[in-house]
């Protein structure tokens, strides 16, 4: 027996932990990938992402193909079936190899007795594929491969573009770099990439950013280890630019971990930054990121909605509020979000965000700037949140970020495409 773990078995276990047990893919994948050769790591990632992207269709095919649903501990074999069908439907693996490797996974899963059943179901899928696909397309959840509650909310919010948004969520997100302006200009780093034959493009809407033609290992990027660039989506790179940090400013980054935006602020200005986060483990990553780029900030573990527990009563020149959110703008990067989030989470998150915004506002100096940000596409967490804040407070001046940014429909909403889905609003405290 080979000592190399079977990737399909690992994928079935990972998916079972995410979908049935509610674990996050971000935590499960590195764990499952431990010790795998790079090629198998990439395959495991591709299969897990793919199954999560197409989960409702895969479930639907199996409802037609499996006489008795696999329940309890046997649920893991249901996920193995999804892994097999996903390969047959979407990957370039030759069908005989997809089926035999999936059946071989049963050895690792200690269920050789199911060989005949899994083999027969996958072969039935092959025979009935076209018919099953047509049937599934009649059900909206399977046609769009998103949960019903989310389809309904984006349809309401974006009556003209909701289908494009859902289709975009099914794509692989591009890999963007943020050039550390304290070390190189974007053009200088672009030239370094060209000299290293690394294909990429620039976009004037994202002045610190470079989009790679293909994802690659970060350590193959020039001077990555000394902080010349960082991996960060283009939309996320707008936060620090909208904040406009200046040398000697005092700045609060109130929901800072893992620190992408903290680092960007410090790359743009020699400012005094307090990076706050309520999660001590995630705060550790802010430290690691700062160390790599060679810049420093004060780190504080604390709750942004309870400033009296950590604030020294000195107001800040600028505040970045990158609040916890539904992350529905980054489904391309985290397809598990579709299945981990519930409709009821949105109202809870909006209440928490409102609470944080109200609690943090007094910490801003008169004349100071606050940037509110989420990686959500849902108005409840974005425009509606900020419109309510503007209506309830008369010491806030709303600063438009584009032509249609008004106090009743405030902010800039980016939808997934060239960048991730993100929302920004800029507020200044009246003097
Ligand atoms: C969207 S992430 C921030 C990403 C970060 N700004 C970056 O660019 O790397 C939101 C963060 O808010 C933190 N958080 C959640 N509730 C919080 C609270 N009540 N107070 C402070 N931080 C909180 C989470 O731990 C999480 O790290």
Automatic annotation (TrEMBL):
Catalytic activity: cytidine(967) in 16S rRNA + S-adenosyl-L-methionine = 5-methylcytidine(967) in 16S rRNA + S-adenosyl-L-homocysteine + H(+)
Positions with a binding annotation for S-adenosyl-L-methionine: 255-261, 277, 303, 322
Superkingdom of origin: Bacteria
Location within or outside the cell: Cytoplasm
Pfam families cross-referenced by the UniProt entry: Methyltr_RsmB-F, NusB, RsmF-B_ferredox
Keyword S-adenosyl-L-methionine applies: yes
Signal peptide: none
Any Gene Ontology biological process: regulation of DNA-templated transcription
A GO MF label: RNA binding
Job description of the protein: Specifically methylates the cytosine at position 967 (m5C967) of 16S rRNA.
Name of the protein described by the UniProt record: 16S rRNA (cytosine(967)-C(5))-methyltransferase
Taxonomy of the source species: Bacteria, Pseudomonadati, Pseudomonadota, Gammaproteobacteria, Alteromonadales
Gene: rsmB
